[in-house]
Amino acid sequence: MKIIQYPEKQEWDSLLSRPDQDQEEIRNSVSQILEDVKKNGDVALQKYTKALDGVQLDNIKVSDEEMDAAAGKLDDALKEAIRMAAANIEKFHAAQKGEETSVEVIPGLNCWQKPVPIDSIGIYVPGGSAPLFSSVLMMALPARVAGCNNIILTTPPDKEGGVHPAILYAARQSGVNKIYKVGGAQAVAAMAYGTESILRVNKIFGPGNRFVTLAKQLVSMEGVAIDLPAGPSEVLVVADDQAPPRFIAADLLSQAEHGTDSQVLLLSASERLLEDTRREIENMLKELPRKDIAEKALEYSRLILLSNMDEIMDMVNCYAPEHLILATENATELSRQVRNSGSVFIGNYTPESLGDYTSGTNHVLPTNGYAVSHSGVNLDAFVKKITFQRASQDGLGNIGESTMTMARAEGLEAHSMAVQVRMENKSG
Amino acid sequence: MKIIQYPEKQEWDSLLSRPDQDQEEIRNSVSQILEDVKKNGDVALQKYTKALDGVQLDNIKVSDEEMDAAAGKLDDALKEAIRMAAANIEKFHAAQKGEETSVEVIPGLNCWQKPVPIDSIGIYVPGGSAPLFSSVLMMALPARVAGCNNIILTTPPDKEGGVHPAILYAARQSGVNKIYKVGGAQAVAAMAYGTESILRVNKIFGPGNRFVTLAKQLVSMEGVAIDLPAGPSEVLVVADDQAPPRFIAADLLSQAEHGTDSQVLLLSASERLLEDTRREIENMLKELPRKDIAEKALEYSRLILLSNMDEIMDMVNCYAPEHLILATENATELSRQVRNSGSVFIGNYTPESLGDYTSGTNHVLPTNGYAVSHSGVNLDAFVKKITFQRASQDGLGNIGESTMTMARAEGLEAHSMAVQVRMENKSG
User: Fold this and answer.
1) Own/partner long-range contacts of A171-174 (Cβ < 8 Å, ≥24 apart)
2) How many CB atoms lie under 10 A from the CB of residue B97?
């Protein structure tokens, strides 16, 4: 890990660049899977599950017995932690509930906007070495709070054809209606098109590898909504002299252990802080079970020395980090200068881990610079807002002439006529 | 126009189907334009403008003189109408302003979500026979209300290299910073990648033809946000016996005049209303300047007789119309049953034209069934919502153990360590 000292502004772009994600090479195989599932339904799902997950399944739906058995297989401490996290996530997302906004625009003309839940939601949870039950909570709970009717979940089966009990337990805590043992691009296809056993959904959520991400992007061009395209996870830490280097080192390491392509940045105006943090990282790295992954990610980490807090916040907003930790004296004040980020962690006692699991904020966040224009998953992601308007005969009288003038200026005579026939009508 | 009587539920899907939009055939040419503009900037823009719009431009930026001259070229009535519409649009979108939502999740742990404006917005306004100045208002005004810093606009030049004064006037009323004379996929490319003269933006808005729509979808896969994929415009009218057939006929015609692929549906439980409306359409059609377009669209219109209001509302929600007109006795009550639609027009005196121009609601709405999962353009479309969290040392104490339990269960040891090093720290 090298410390980069006072880079010039014209170097920022290359300094802050993210790894290229070339999807062209997998495009054909993903398109083929989508096509196959669209045409052949469950038969195609079973074929891919056998080929890619190495297990032959007679029934892809998780049974009631499997659901019931899950709780018995977990520690009480873990179950309690999951319930506590669920309560916090539910509370924070419930606070986002929007009211109908209603305006009498002019006398006799009322307009309002009403949030209406999306009917059917599909959630993807990746497989792999660890069961990502926290992601189940992050996607299913806001869907339940929003009032979505159907919440289904797909996840690849393990070699024995099972699903980790923590995923099943989290799903039951979150109101998931049905769980299917299918992963990868084929799971996305199943939720997008529907099969004999899987309901076609209106919107697909969830992280995944390149295949899953591309599959989501491709089905989104056919009319199914998606949450966010997922990229490698990122943290940017801003720290000053008062921040304990051991805290910062642990935060950087917890990002680095996610994957070898994780993005880890530390910005400071204090050379001492950067040096001390680097030393702490080297010490703490030894203790980690996922040491190899973290070490690889840290090779590409960037510890950057800048002149002052203004320059630092400039770079923060330029990079638009998924996670931003502000470990500075005046962190709350500083947080008001954040214009581009997914989620912000303020002060010395707010590690990113809280947002990943328990604080109640969502951990499905924009990566790869998407934070300049995208929110993380929140309650809005599970509703659409429908507008309504109602004019009385007088209301139309107040606005009709202007409407006709504009319609005619755009060459749309029938639009004008639709107003005129009503204004000519003397009854009503 | 044939009246379809009491269709069986299994026929609904084919009855409500929309025209296929095959984009594969134009994919190569759009990709090539994107690539060219990315590489060659303004030179490429000028090349395409000459080839496709038939005009050679030395300067693609609209000058201050052109802006100043615009108002003088317009009727006072039109200028007044534009200002009135602008005031209503501004009022309705300002009412959507969300507050920071803040929650003390547990003692010592605060989480909040804050809307922050997207910095740079690009708006596309199509050219063609009529100047769509109303679309300028619909996209630029909410951007200004949201507080976006840069609002730029692209639109193809006419044969003389000019832009219609109504577009320029509407742009000035709405706080657009800069206007460029460039259209088609090349305009989308310019806003997505930036050129020597055009600022790269964070999000692109605006309707357009197939080339523009595909260009927007393609750049969205490279990280630029977009509003909605645009399809042919749609209206679905629900009417009962009390609705004047002449009003309904005018509404259907105003949709039909948009384009030959416009989608026009009328649902009723009254055969008389359907018959009378059909007759009115035939009479009124003769008077229309855009008769040929409307006639063609009406060939594919669907007048459907159903058994009762429940079945009608079922079909409404199944179709998810961009525009929905409820011309029934109990229209306000009925509107509460709407689950899928872009914008709803209630009662006999609320023609769609109001929403297209003056009522204040947005006219950029989800087509092609996207209303099941997407909102129309609203204030949310111009902000992202960033989450923040701050734990005190006690707050972390209340939640730390659970966080560590969950992190370890997901195999993420460093995530646990980031909590542990803080909990072990006795100072603070």
Assistant:
1) A171/A67, A171/A136, A171/A140, A172/A67, A172/A70, A172/A71, A173/A82, A173/A83, A173/A86, A173/A137, A174/A86, A174/A136, A174/A137, A174/A140, A174/A141, A174/A144
2) 13
d(CA A307, CA B185): 42
User: For residues B379 and B361, what is the distance between their CA atoms, to the nearest angstrom?
Assistant: 11
Q: Tell me the nearest-neighbour CA distance from B56 into chain A, angstroms.
A: 26
Per-window interface: A 7-66 vs B, CB < 8 A: none
Q: What angle do CA A98, B90, B69 make, to 5 degrees?
A: 155
Q: Provide the whole-model pTM.
A: 0.95
User: Are residues B349 and A224, on separate chains, in Cβ contact within 8 Å?
Assistant: no
3-state SS assignment for residue B378: coil
Tell whether ipTM is more than 0.90.
yes
* Cβ atoms within 10 Å of B71's Cβ, excluding its own: 14
Contact list in B for residue A414 (CB cut-off 8 A) is 250, 253-254, 256-257, 284, 288, 290, 294
Residue position matching structure tokens 């297209």: B356
Question: How many Å is the Cα radius of gyration of chain B?
Answer: 26
Which residues of A participate in catalysis according to the annotation?
A: 322-323
pLDDT beneath 70, residues of chain A: 21, 129, 426-428
HEC sequence for B266-329? EEECCHHHHHHHHHHHHHHHCCCCCHHHHHHHHHCCEEEECCCHHHHHHHHHHHCCCEEEEECC
B295 by Cβ neighbours in 10 Å (0-12 / 13-18 / 19+) ranks as middle
Kindly tell me if the per-residue pLDDT of B69 is higher than 50: yes
Structure tokens at A173: 């805590």
Alpha helix (H) residue ranges in A320-377: 331-335, 352-357
State the distance between the two ends of chain B, measured CA to CA, in whole angstroms: 78
Q: CA separation (Å) from A303 to A263, A270, A271, A295?
A: 11, 11, 10, 15
